[in-house]
Amino acid sequence: MNVPSFPFLGFAVLGAILYNLLPAGILRRGLLLLINLIFLSTFVHGWQQALPYAGFLLTGFLGTRLLMAQGPRWRLPVLIAVILFAFFWLKRYTFIPAAINLPFLYTTVGLSYVFFRVLHLIIDAGQGQIKERISPLDYLNYTLNFTALVSGPIQFYQDYREQERNGEKVDLFAAGWAAERIIVGMFKVAIVSTLLMQGQKAAIADLAVASTFPMRVLYCALIGAIYPLFLYANFSGYTDFVIGCARLFRIRLPENFHHPFIAENFIAFWSRWHITLSNWLKVYVYTPFLMTAMRRIPSPAIEPYLAVAAYFVTFFLVGAWHGQTSMFLFFGVLQGGGVAMNKLYQVAMTKRLSRKGYKQLSAEPWYRVFCRALTFTWFAFTLLWFWSTWGQLGQFIQQAGWPAVACGWVLVLLVAMPALSLLRAVQGPIEARKVDPAAVPASRYWRTALSTAMLIILIGTTVLLNGPAPDVVYKTF
Amino acid sequence: MQDIYDKLTEILQDVFDDDEIVASPELAAADVDGWDSLAHVRFILAIERGFGVKFSAAEASAFANVGELANGIAAKRSA
């Protein structure tokens, strides 16, 4: 079952009605487990295909329970290693010898996200952060939560459990809020991201036949700049949709995006893009890495450089997690390198200008416009290793020539300056909550009209095209 | 509890190099200039040394404000 799609929406709404009719407690939680398992079963063809997945979940559960009991400290690193190995093995990472791969097809849908949840439980249980015993029912409902199974967002167990116990009732207002998120999400995925993807494909085709230098520059710029917009519409649309669906089950999933393209540096960008992934890695990689390093090397002069190293490792993992090929490893190097360079630059500028001087520079309008555009351009550049292949990159360079490629990126930077300033002018007041709730764009009448228009376009397009539901890029991770 | 807040004020002023900061339950990272992820770890390690307690990375990341941090310190001291 595709997410987002009308069949999934029907399934979720029907499930939510039954869920809300039942009294809180074992019956409701039992129904949720049934819904989660039915959804998972739509990806499984034959019981054998589900066995590795079940084994991974069982290992995580037994590990969590074992760590919650008193015992020696070595159990935590051993269990972390077991979970890491099981994940890499099941996902068939290239550094795992092919000889030990399972010789049959099996489902791995959402396994990357289940992995983050299981590892979080293992670490927190080992560090005494989970106070109450986790039942098999709660464990399965948390790890297999059908609204967030395919591509997240990654919710921490404590937050999930609190929501499940004391989640807000679904009244008319909540249902309206959920419907709006669902429609906006589906519209972003089915219409906006589809159009953007078609635009990028057209630019790629046009580059192959472009005869003049300015046209080659233009197509290079379009190929590079459209993809981040497509990915944002696609992934944030999916997130809007599942947040809306989860709200019908009284669960508020964490947000994954927060106006990422108005970020003024690459470190800030990653606190606005795929927020739950970067937050997870901040808690379980960046902070422990930095705390351990600073405890071992207690030198104030070295500390900023330890942070640079911690940033590199953390965001290299963010990139490398996306896939098993050398393209994704390089994507990880560019993410880690980007945030590490960003931190080094901050350290150097603070030394050179003093903290106050650097803060003053960072507040200059021209500087903010430039940094915002540079952040977008760098992210768009790194995404080349996310969506293409080495062969395809070589082909683009051959078709366009190095000068046109370089000028294309300069063009992206130049256009991003006014375009993102305009975006900042619109989104800034919304972010700062300075928009009057009574103003027309924020009023519920306007929002209802807009959502209705989106729904009509969505249904019209779906019926007219009669094609399969559009895919979500992160489904494959 | 007041002794915890007094000591936290001292540590905050030292870590952020600002004599104006006063620890209060609502004080959060967004209210203090320069409180980024590196400064946060620096602050947590200074607390560990100052109070003779130890935090896991998950605990260190979970505090939303100084009030929660003070409660965490009090709980660790009484354990």
Automatic annotation (TrEMBL), chain A:
Pathway info: Glycan biosynthesis; alginate biosynthesis
Q: Where in the cell is it found?
A: Cell membrane
Membrane topology classification: Multi-pass membrane protein
Q: Name one GO molecular function term.
A: acyltransferase activity
Q: Which domain of life is it from?
A: Bacteria
User: Primary place of residence?
Assistant: membrane
**UniProt GO cellular component terms:** plasma membrane
Biological process (GO) annotations held by this record are:
alginic acid biosynthetic process
Q: Which residues cross the membrane?
A: 6-22, 29-44, 74-90, 96-119, 217-235, 305-321, 327-345, 366-388, 400-423, 444-465
Pfam families listed in its UniProt record: MBOAT
Which key words are in the record? Acyltransferase, Alginate biosynthesis, Cell membrane, Membrane, Transferase, Transmembrane, Transmembrane helix
The family line of this record is: Belongs to the membrane-bound acyltransferase family.
Known PANTHER family for this protein?
ACYLTRANSFERASE, PROTEIN-CYSTEINE N-PALMITOYLTRANSFERASE RASP
Protein name per the record: Probable alginate O-acetylase AlgI
Its source organism is Sphingomonas trueperi
TrEMBL record, chain B:
Q: Which residues form the Carrier domain?
A: 1-77
Quote the protein name from its UniProt record.
Answer: Acyl carrier protein
What InterPro entries does its record include? ACP-like_sf, PP-bd_ACP
Domain of life of the native organism:
Bacteria
Q: Which Gene3D superfamilies match?
A: ACP-like
User: Which organism's genome codes for this protein?
Assistant: Sphingomonas trueperi
- Pfam families, per the entry: PP-binding (PF00550)
